[in-house]
Write a structure and sequence with these properties.
CATH architecture: 2-Layer Sandwich
Largest sheet: 3 strands, mixed
CATH topology: Zincin-like
CATH class: Alpha Beta
Structural class: mainly alpha
Shape: globular
Distance between the termini: 26 Å
Radius of gyration: 15 Å
Helix content: 40-55%
Number of domains: 1
Strand order of the largest sheet: 1-3-2
């Protein structure tokens, strides 16, 4: 088995993230109406600088956009909400911890969405437990 095992590609991890997102509680998903999920190997230099990251491995994911509670009908054409997952930092984290890769991706999705909407750690733990 291990002689043929390999890390998921960008496309495979993006497909995994979409499948996991679709299984999150619907009320939680509704916060992200029209969200776009993308996977890249690493965050951009601009993101690393903005987040004061010491290394490209420091960020597992990022939510960019404006949440539903903060939108206004007066908003001029805005970019869609996006969740970025960073494949190489996620794989590095996976290699160092005794967790399933899907569990890590789910955790990152929930926390990126949750932090953006101001949910508490307890709220996010409850959402994680709901789908476990």
């Amino acid at each position: 088995m291990w002689t043929t095992a390999k890390a998921p590609s960008l496309a495979e991890m993006e497909a995994m993230a979409h499948q996991i997102f679709e299984r999150l509680p619907s009320g939680f998903r509704d916060l992200c109406e029209g969200v776009i999920i993308r996977v890249d190997d690493f965050p951009t230099e601009e993101v690393l600088d903005e987040m004061n990251a010491e290394s490209e491995f420091d960020l597992l994911g990022l939510f960019q956009g404006i949440g539903l509670p903060f939108r206004s009908n007066d908003d001029i054409a805005r970019l869609p909400n996006m969740i970025w997952l960073y494949r190489r930092p996620i794989l590095d984290y996976w290699a160092e911890h005794d967790e399933a890769l899907g569990h890590i991706v789910r955790h990152v999705l929930i926390h990126e969405i949750g932090h953006h909407f101001g949910l508490s750690d307890d709220d996010m733990e409850a959402i994680e437990a709901e789908g476990s």
